[in-house]
Amino acid sequence: MLRSVGGALFAVQLGTIIGKLSGEVVSAGDIGIPLLSGPGREGGALLPSGVAAFAEGLDQDTEAVTLYLAVRELAHARLFRHSKWLRLHLLSAITDYARGISIDTDRIEEVAREIDPSQPDQLQELLSNGALIPPKSPAQEAAHARLETMLALIEGWVDVVTANAAMRIPGADAIAEMVRRRRATGGPAEHAFSALIGLELRPRRLRDAAALWRLVGERGTPEIRDGLWAHPDLLPTMEELDHPARLLERLGLAGASPDSEADDFDAALAQLLDGTLPPHDKEADNGDSSDGEDQSDSEK
Length: 300
What we know:
2 domains
């Protein structure tokens, strides 16, 4: 009976938290997990109420905020559309973690002796803060680590691609910083979700993953960076997130220099093509040549 009651209360609490969580997200790909699938839904979706709530705390134009978030959503949708294996790989990690969730019936029996029958909310409160959920098993810890790394790689890649595509959007840097802060703090429903099942939706290693994707793009090319999503075995590992030099060595980019360090010829050529090269001073050249002629005459 206690197992049935505990399971029912857990399901009710989980459904309530997910309902509240739906009011905090701004898009279908906001938490990194694909929520939409099927023909006609590859482009993702924006939630107008979530976008409006997100834009309230920003001193930015609402259209610019909406456009930036739309670019992020398109980047997220593009990744899952071209990496066909990614969706199943991510959902498998979630399933492996969820399979180990159980209710501690022994703990319920202990609580039942002390609980006040006139206050049935006490048991629900214990479930909501995760007190009746046993510690994570080794299999859950491994699934959690895989899921956290995968979400960090997804969100980091989306951040880098969005930053490159939204450079000309007014206030893009401020909006991006707000996205990072929002992801770092999370909302009340996210904290309740984490306490209930022990699974954090916001990857803690997002900045490391974004820096890694940015480094690969600078040392190599966007094609090399995006090509790592062709197969799960090609993706950066947890060790490579800790030590990006190992990934550069694996890709053969350890000795490469960033593209921004162009030589003087390339810089001058770029100025010439852009029309920013200083004008050629003919008089100075004539003066130099005449001085040279006088000098040669005097030498003669």
